[in-house]
Design goal:
Oligomer: heterodimer
Radius of gyration of chain A: 17 Å
Distance between the termini of chain B: 87 Å
Number of helices of chain A: 8
Helix content of chain A: 55-70%
Number of strands of chain A: 0
Number of strands of chain B: 8
CATH class of the largest domain in chain B: Alpha Beta
Strand content of chain B: 5-15%
Radius of gyration of chain B: 28 Å
Number of domains of chain B: 2
Structural class of chain A: mainly alpha
Strand order of the largest sheet of chain B: 1-4
Largest sheet of chain B: 2 strands, antiparallel
Strand content of chain A: under 5%
Shape of chain B: elongated
CATH topology of the largest domain in chain B: Alpha-Beta Plaits
Largest interface: A-B, 19 and 16 residues
Chain lengths: 191, 270
């Protein structure tokens, strides 16, 4: 598979949120305002890219040579947790308002299944280093795209006349479903 | 020996990551005053902005920097002020609780209508058209203040005037902003003499449109000239503190009940 295919597939076709349904927690939790959603997307992209790099190195330089493939999950979790900790420190230092806006969803990236899924899928598909990096960045951008689109729609929804029982989470889930349906239109692009 | 390889591998990995993180922490640590968190916990978390800052946390930050007074949260009132003062190590002093009060007694019986209003049922909309009452200064009665009150302290009374529940009122000032005719004002709880009218019409015109309008007769001004004055056909309390309690009965002789004690208002609405 060439790099462009991997990149486009990660963003549009196999979008983590709208195709695999991974990482729904921040997707619904931080998608009320576009700027907070974009920052969340950037934080996830950063963690995803670095996770892809570091977990590839650990997988190929440590785990496989020692025959320790069964430690993949626990060592990947270690990588993700450390990176999220780093991002959290960084955001807290650089932008306290953003830290407030992201709230609990920032440390929750640690257990975000999208990121764990990325590390495991990259290992499963046996990507080489460059492919893994492209896959990581693409997946992060795909997540950002999904969450920003969602936030844009939800900002408009605030002004819409939504039936009382569907207000809030109900309509958000319906919107997410329709978006997933729309994104499934990309599935023919890659065999 | 087989067992030691994975144990050692994980130990080394964990060790490397913790070294990386502790270096990052040295670079990126944030010095935060622990008082901010403590004060933030005490605050009511209404995030109403009545203190003049963007929310409870923002207020807590400003207080710890000494840029705002400890009594700055009108919603929390005296109780919260004392607790904040304890944390800051200062005296709260006595900040008297304030409440919002309506400056109109033109209820459905007292105020005459000039026509039927069938437009959008908010005061804001009705005010643009002029409303259905003859008096263009009085309460429109569509309850923008009731909707605006975040503490559920204002209800629409039977006679079409909003009634403030003074126990619930936190003087956040939302009703003051919401009323298009500016009929709410925040008063100290102890102030019980109030001019219940904002009409600037002259005596005869005011009397025609509302039974409880101030007709600028000046009885109250003669009773207590140090504190009350007539301005633009309306009695105005210049300085409440100068009102001698002995003069209150004389002030209350107002022929239209446009000035008086607030307790009387409540029993009337009763």
């Amino acid at each position: 598979m060439d790099l462009l295919t991997i990149f486009v597939a990660a963003i549009l076709v196999n979008n983590f949120v709208l195709y695999y349904f991974l990482g729904i927690c921040p997707f619904l939790g931080v998608s009320k305002k576009i700027d907070a959603a974009f920052s969340m997307g950037m934080a996830v992209t950063f963690v995803m890219s670095l996770t892809a790099v570091v977990s590839w190195m650990i997988n190929h330089w440590v785990l496989i040579p020692f025959g320790l493939d069964y430690l993949q999950i626990v060592s990947f979790i270690l990588v993700i947790a450390s990176l999220v900790q780093l991002v959290e420190m960084f955001i807290r230092k650089m932008s306290p308002p953003l830290y407030q806006a992201l709230g609990i969803y920032l440390p929750l990236i640690t257990t975000n299944c999208a990121i764990m899924g990325l590390a495991l899928l990259a290992a499963l598909k046996d990507y080489n280093f460059i492919q893994t990096v492209v896959f990581g960045v693409g997946s992060g951008l795909g997540f950002t795209l999904a969450i920003v689109l969602m936030a844009g729609i939800r900002e408009q929804l605030d002004l819409a006349d939504v039936p009382e029982p569907l207000k809030g989470a109900g309509i958000a889930l319906i919107v997410a479903g329709i978006m997933a349906l729309a994104f499934s239109g990309f599935s023919g692009m890659i065999k | 020996m087989e067992v030691f390889i994975p144990i050692l591998t994980m130990a080394v990995l964990g060790f490397l990551f913790s070294i990386g993180l502790s270096f990052a922490y040295q670079k990126l640590k944030v010095e935060e005053d622990p008082k901010v968190e403590k004060i933030n916990e005490i605050l009511p978390q209404a995030n109403c902005g009545a203190c003049g800052y963007s929310g409870c946390r923002a207020f807590a930050e400003v207080v710890t920097q000494g840029k705002a007074v400890v009594t700055g949260c009108p919603v929390g009132g005296e109780e919260v002020s004392i607790k904040i003062a304890e944390i800051m190590g200062t005296e709260a002093g006595k900040a008297e609780r304030k409440v919002a009060r309506l400056h109109c007694r033109g209820d459905n019986e007292a105020a005459k209508n000039k026509g039927l209003y069938l437009g959008i049922t908010t005061c804001y909309a009705a005010h643009i058209i002029g409303g259905n009452k003859q008096c263009v200064y009085g309460c429109l009665g569509y309850g923008d203040c009731v909707d605006a009150c975040p503490f559920d302290a204002i209800d629409m009374g039977d006679k079409g005037l909003p009634v403030v529940d003074e126990d619930r009122c936190t003087a956040c000032g939302k009703c003051v902003e919401a009323c298009p005719r500016n009929l709410f004002e925040l008063h100290p709880l102890s102030q019980n003499i109030i001019v219940f009218c904002r009409s600037l019409d002259g005596g005869a015109a005011a009397k025609k449109s509302c039974k409880n309008a101030c007709i600028s007769c000046g009885i109250c001004v003669r009773a207590c000239p140090e504190a009350i004055a007539l301005e633009n056909n309306l009695a105005v309390i210049k300085d409440y503190k100068k009102i001698d309690p002995e003069k209150i009965p004389a002030i209350e002789k107002c022929p239209t009940d446009a000035i008086g004690q607030i307790e009387k208002e409540e029993t009337n609405e009763g």
